[in-house]
Amino acid sequence: MNRKLSIVIAAHNEAKTIGPLVRRLLRWHRRPEVIVIANGCTDGTGNIAKMAGARVVRFRTRLGPDIGRAIGISLAHGDILLVLDADVAVTIAQLEPFVRAVERGADIALNRYPLFGTKQFHHPTAVAKHALNVFADRPDLLAASLTAIPHAISRRAALQLGPLAFCVPPVAQARALCSNNLKVEVAAHVPVGRLNRRRGPHHELTMRRLIIGDCLEGMSVIIQERGSRGGFTDLSRKRHLVTQMPVLPRSSVDTAVIVPTQGEETLRQVLKELRRLHLDQVRLVLNGTSDTTLPDVKGLSVQVDHYRDPVGHDVGRAIGCMQVDAAKYFFTDADIILPKAQVQPFLAALDEGVDIALNHLDAILAKRRQIDPPSIVKRFLNIACERPDLGVASLTAVPHAVSRRTVEQIGAEAFAVPPVAQVKAILAGLKVMAVHPVDVIHTNAARPHLHDKSVGRPLQKLIIGDYVEAIHCLQQTLGDRGAFPDNVRRRTIAEQYIVNHFPMAARS
């Protein structure tokens, strides 16, 4: 009995809504098969759904989020599978675009939720979903996710991914996005946040942590499929320069400033401003130029490490850090002129016990404007490290300062990939804070060859790859879900049921 459309509904104690929903769906001109997975119900939900005309499978135990969907997907006969929730009053008109998208060739048709420009778009779970899509190189999907209903799935996708993948929707989504032959697109917008029943702050917190962990688990799929950088460029970083650098005696100072430079025109002004701080040493990592002529700034101790070829993004920071033993390290760029007042708060924070003093970018860039992929992955990494208070603050952005203890504990070489250093510092229990805002967004020098969309925005791709690598670092220590375990799903029940009833589907 093949039917064109199957509708899967997981239900737990939805006696008030399940009957009208099933009857409405069965009046649809598409004549769908309606499957209700009634789990842990004590209010007659299963009986009401059956009387309304649905095919009902009952479980005495509550299965937890998404498990009923996975079981329902394994049972469905249709060429198109539509997934709904029992407590969301979605109209037939709202569902049609999802079915039509699959009819036109999509394998997964997602709900464009939450909408760009809304408060929900910046919710931690939406940031996690958005980051997953960015890591899969599908930023066009924004925060659209298989976690949100409604969504439609082709039979081909259900069989290729296997129904068990849908126990954790972001895992199924990541597998689909990594596949070479499945088409994922957004079909329509249904405001499920407004339609969904409110369940209280405890439930909201539980679901928030579950979804963040789900997205981390989905990211582990991308890393397994595409490597520790998710397939993103490293832009010819010469990491060997720091991993193979010989250990030599180093001068010991209180404060050292590390400035990677290719001889920018602004370098003299940068050094003149630094002179006002009465620093012990400025370390210039001069790379990518044969011209070693440097401006003479009286009263400033400047040491130079010269490399004829470019060393690559951020590698100069690690090199400079390895060449001097300092109680405090301050990092900046040669094209950013910082007055004394913009430097002192970072060094003062270290004097007060902070180990990593970051640029407080949330005070510069309003959250509603943090919509570009780099901002999304920066915020998500801090969420994944359980430091949402840091916002988009990151070691990727200068200026920042770090303590000697930081360098000793995580190693100077970690600074060649700043987000990796940030993860290592947080995992080591070091004190990381966003201490002072410096507007480097509007003052940074324009580099069309690195930012231009026409050449693929290579710098953006580098940054995204850095954050995939940082997530990989986090997962190597804490596991695929980071610090967000899944304690509410009964995955073993789905595995046993699907393997026993549909062994071929379980293995596909």
UniProtKB/TrEMBL annotation:
Pathway assignment reads: Carotenoid biosynthesis; staphyloxanthin biosynthesis; staphyloxanthin from farnesyl diphosphate: step 4/5
Spell out the protein name for this chain.
Answer: 4,4'-diaponeurosporenoate glycosyltransferase
Q: Tell me the function of this protein.
A: Catalyzes the glycosylation of 4,4'-diaponeurosporenoate, i.e. the esterification of glucose at the C1'' position with the carboxyl group of 4,4'-diaponeurosporenic acid, to form glycosyl-4,4'-diaponeurosporenoate. This is a step in the biosynthesis of staphyloxanthin, an orange pigment present in most staphylococci strains.
Q: Which Pfam families match?
A: Glycos_transf_2
Entry keyword annotation includes Membrane: yes
Q: Which UniProt keywords apply?
A: Carotenoid biosynthesis, Cell membrane, Glycosyltransferase, Membrane, Transferase
InterPro entries to which the protein is assigned, alphabetical: Glyco_trans_2-like, Nucleotide-diphossugar_trans
GO molecular function (one): glycosyltransferase activity
Where's it found, cell-wise? Cell membrane
Entry keyword Membrane:
yes
Q: Per the similarity annotation, which family is this?
A: Belongs to the glycosyltransferase 2 family. CrtQ subfamily.
Q: Which organism is it from?
A: Alicyclobacillus fodiniaquatilis
